[in-house]
Every structure is written in C-alpha cells, then in structure tokens.
Specification:
It contains 18 helices and 12 strands. By secondary structure, it is α/β, with parallel strands linked by helices. The protein has a 6-stranded mixed β-sheet with strand order 6-9-10-3-11-12. It has a 4-stranded antiparallel β-sheet with strand order 2-1-4-5, with no helix packed on it. Strands 7-8 form a two-stranded antiparallel sheet. β11 and β12 form a beta hairpin. α1 packs antiparallel against α3, α4 packs antiparallel against α9 and α5 runs antiparallel to α8. The longest helix has 48 residues. 33% of the residues are buried.
Length: 534
C-alpha cells in the first residue's frame, strides 16, 4: 500500500501540473491566435490602402473582405491548434515510444508499421481536400459580392419588386457553398475512422502477441522474450499515447489543409505590390495647376483590344476652367483620373505643374488635386467629420465658407444638429443633390491647385448648378477647374470645352466656336435646347 500511495500521489501531482499547463497553453494560444489575426488584418488592410485602382480591380471588394475576415479566421484557428500540439504531441509520441522500446523492442515494431500507413492516408486526404477548400473560399467571394451588391441597391430591389430574384440568387450560391464544403468535409472526415481503426488494431495486435509472450514465459519479464501482465498493460497505455499523439497531429494537419487555402489567399493580398509607387527622389511640390497631355494612350488591361484613350494631346493653363463633354463611354472619367495618377498612362506623358506626374510624391500630387468623383461617397460620421477629410485642421469658419460656395449651407442649417448632423453609412440619410454638394465642399476644403468635378452636379437643379459654378469662378480664380457634365449648360461658360468621342479629342474651343465647328457638340446642344425634335 505504501508504494500505491506514493505513486498515486505522484499521479495526482502530475495530473494537476498537466491541468495547469493545459490551462496556460489554452490561454496563451488564444492570445497568440488573436495577436496573429490582428497583425494579419493590420498588414493586409494597410497594404490594400496602398493599392492602385488597377490592383483593386484585380481582386474584388467582396474578395478582399472575405480574405480579411473568413480566411484570417481559418488561419488563426489552425495556428492555435498547431502551437498547442506542435510541441506536446511529438514529445508525447517520442517519450511513449522510447519507454515502449525499453519494455519490449519487438512489440514496439508494431507502432512503426502503423505510422507509415497513417501518413499515407493523411497525405491523400490533404491532397484531395485542399483544392475543394480553395474552391469553397472563392465561392465565398461571390456570396459576399451578392450580399454587398444587394444591400447597396436595396432601394432598387424593392422598387422593382425583385426580392424573390435576389433570394434565388443568394440561395444558389449558398447551395454551391454547401455542396463544395460538404464534399471537402466528407473527405476530411475519413481521417478520424482511419486513425481509430489503426489505434484499435495496434492495441489488439500488441495484446495478442503480448499475451503469448506472457504465456510462454510464465509472466516472468526476466526470461528472454518474456513479459509480465503489468508490463503489457503499460505497453498498451503507451500504445494509446502514441496513437493519440498521431491522431492529434493528424487533426492539426487537417486544420492546416483548410487553412492552407485561406493562407494562400491572405498571402496574395500581402504580396501584392501597388502598380503606382513613388520614384526614388520624388518631387514634393506642385508649382501650379497647369496640365498637359502629350501623346497619351491608356487601357485598363494590357490584354484589352481597344484603347480607352488614344493619342490624346492637350495643354491646359493654370487657373483655366475646362468643360469636358462626350457621350457615354467616351472616357471622360478615365481622362481626369490620369491627372492625380489614380492610373498610370500606357503611352505618353501626363504633366502637372510642368512635370510628369510619375516624378511626384503620390501624396504631394494628390494633395493638390481635389476630385469629386462620379459616384459620390460619404462615410458614417458627422457632416464636420466628413468635410474634414479635405483638411483635418480646418476651422468651423472655413467649413462654413466652403459649404456656402458649394450651396450646401442652406440645407445643413435646416438640420436640428446642423454641422454635427450624423451621416449614415454611404450618406443614406441625405439626398443625391445634398450628397453631391457636401462632396464638393469637402474637395474645396483641400484648397487644391486643380479641382475636378466628374459629373458631380447632375443631381442638383440648374439654378444651384449655376450658383456653384459662379462661386468657383469668383472664389477660386487661380485653381484649374475641370468640369465633366452631361448638360452643356453646366460648361458653356467655361474658358474652353473639350469634346471627347470614343477616347479621342474630337474638338476643343469655346461654346460659340464649337457650335460652329463641332457637329457632335452642336447636336448635343440642339437636343438639349430643342428637345431633340429635329
């Protein structure tokens, strides 16, 4: 009894120590996993912020969101499992095998036969499951894309009573994920029964041969090839430990299989390098707002059959007001996006302030070019917070001044909280015209050398449009202003008007000159003033 008590106490102490280290392992694995997820998302998001439009087009917004969320979670779960098992399981396997060899080298050979079999099965499971998981995560991108598109366009969906169609679209993609994921999980599920079969078969073989060894030696372990009942029980215990370790390692490999597909997608974001970078010794100052296009050609894709802009040549003086007119698809937006280097030209040069835009520090260049894009975007936060994107240090008086120029003060003052009014995500609680005027005010707050309005007054009435143009002309005489518009009335008082047609400059001149010389311009003017009757 003395021996039993001593070893019983030792076992209790060992069990307590095991529990303590298990608790600490779980705690620090959770901390390490959460830290890895935080660092991955941090680095991915910061890298995405450096992407050019071309890089973002290469992925999709839905895919980037999936990679930042689902894929990082999968990698984190595998990481937590690995760091808990990477030391524990191999050490348990090694020690159990060493002690089993000390008891019976011949019986220990049974374990060596089981290990290669398990390794082969695991290899084939991983090889088959990995492509399936990769396919699943790509389908997740499509699912997120449908949800994102549906939520953004929910008003259109309800207006056209297309809820059932959207449900059907969502259901088909969900079904596709279900089928692919089920297939992948079924493949991975073979791991457990194979492991258990090997474990129980090994225990049976050890018991069978061990019993024969006990019978032949009379239970005397000192006899050559002999074995006692107690040693056989120890051997069976070590066998269970070895196979349990192998099972834990196999579970970790299964988690790695799932995480491998996600990890590859995470690495794609981390390894992606922006197509637009600063030169070695960038120019930090933009001298003025002059713009020059010299033989510029551009296409969004290198494999594109047709150029969006083809051999464009134009010179714009600093402080000049330029109107840009053209039909849908004539590359008006593409033309202005080359100025702040949102895209790089394929052929030719775009110069600002007398220097190629590729010579500038990107931040220095974009700080001097304010754009109000065709798709106006406001972020969740107060009106002041949104406007201070233009200048974080702007005073309240400066904010009110630019709002007067953009004719936004009249509706802001009507809100109960005025400039502290909260803007919902995407500007959902303001009208299209109000959103456009707030975006114009935000751009003006930058005090830019070049101001680009990309069809940014289409949702305001003609009277407000004329007030905004007059304010820009009177208050910003030294700022170069490029105004893209569908209404000729919005650009007819510009210093010059550029008529774009199929990616080429069809004509340049004043309103009166173009009425005389440009057939395209004249047709547009007549259709807008006479209602297209002729």
């Amino acid at each position: 009894m003395r021996v039993i008590i001593i070893y019983g106490v030792l076992l209790l102490i060992a069990a307590f120590v095991t529990m303590l280290f298990g608790f600490l392992a779980g705690k620090y694995a959770a901390v390490a996993g959460a830290g890895l997820a935080k660092n991955l998302r941090h680095d991915m998001f910061y890298n995405v912020q450096s992407f050019s439009f071309t890089n973002i087009d290469r992925f999709s917004s839905a895919s980037i969101v999936t990679r930042l969320t689902t894929d990082v979670s999968n990698v984190t779960m595998a990481y937590q499992m690995i760091i808990r098992m990477a030391v524990r399981s191999p050490m348990m396997l090694i020690f159990a095998f060493v002690f089993s060899v000390r008891i019976s080298p011949s019986l220990s050979l049974v374990f060596l036969c089981a290990v290669p079999l398990l390794a082969i099965v695991l290899f084939f499971i991983i090889r088959k499951a990995h492509p399936l998981f990769r396919k699943v995560f790509k389908t997740y991108d499509r699912l997120n894309g449908v949800v994102e598109e549906d939520l953004r366009g929910i008003r259109v969906v309800k207006s056209f009573v297309q809820e059932e169609q959207e449900k059907s679209k969502f259901g088909k993609i969900s079904e596709s994920i279900y089928r692919s994921f089920s297939k992948a999980e079924k493949t991975v599920a073979y791991n457990m029964p194979v492991m258990q079969a090997c474990m129980y078969a090994t225990v049976l073989v050890v018991s069978w041969f061990g019993a024969k060894m006990i019978a032949s030696s009379g239970g005397n372990p000192d006899v050559p090839g002999g074995l006692s009942t107690g040693l056989l029980m120890s051997l069976i215990t070590y066998a269970s430990m070895i196979l349990t370790s192998l099972m834990m390692v196999s579970m970790a490999f299964v988690a790695i299989t799932m995480a491998k597909a996600s990890g590859e997608r995470v690495v794609e974001i981390l390894d992606e390098k922006s197509d637009i970078t600063d030169p070695e010794n960038p120019v930090m100052t933009v001298d003025d707002g002059s713009i020059e296009f010299r033989g510029v050609s551009f296409a969004y894709s290198q494999s594109a059959d047709k150029l969006c802009l083809d051999n464009v040549n134009v010179s714009i003086a600093s402080g000049e007001t330029i109107g840009i007119i053209g039909g849908t698809g004539s590359s008006k937006s593409t033309f202005v996006q080359l100025i702040p280097r949102l895209y790089d030209v394929v052929v030719g040069t775009v110069a600002v302030g007398g220097r190629d835009v590729r010579e500038y520090n990107i931040k220095a260049l974009r700080d001097q070019v304010a754009m109000v894009l065709q798709k106006n975007v406001l972020f969740s936060g107060t009106i002041k917070e949104n406007l201070r994107w233009g200048d974080p240090n702007a005073s309240d008086d400066e904010i009110k001044r630019v709002c007067r120029l953009a004719c936004a003060d009249e509706f802001i003052e009507s809100f109960p909280d005025k400039y502290d009014t909260y803007i919902e995500q995407g500007g959902a609680n303001v009208s299209g015209g109000q959103k456009q005027r707030l975006c114009i005010a935000r751009a003006l707050l930058k005090k830019p050398k070049i101001l680009i309005l990309d069809d940014s007054t289409s949702a305001v009435d003609t009277h407000t449009d004329s007030l905004i143009r007059r304010a820009l002309r009177d208050e910003l005489p030294d700022t170069t202003k490029l105004i893209i518009a569908q209404r000729i009335a919005s650009v007819c008082d510009a210093d010059r008007i550029i008529v774009l047609d199929d990616g080429r400059i069809s004509a340049i001149g004043t309103h009166e000159e173009l009425l005389e010389s440009s057939t395209i311009y004249r047709e547009v003017w007549e259709s807008q003033t006479k209602g297209g009757e002729e």
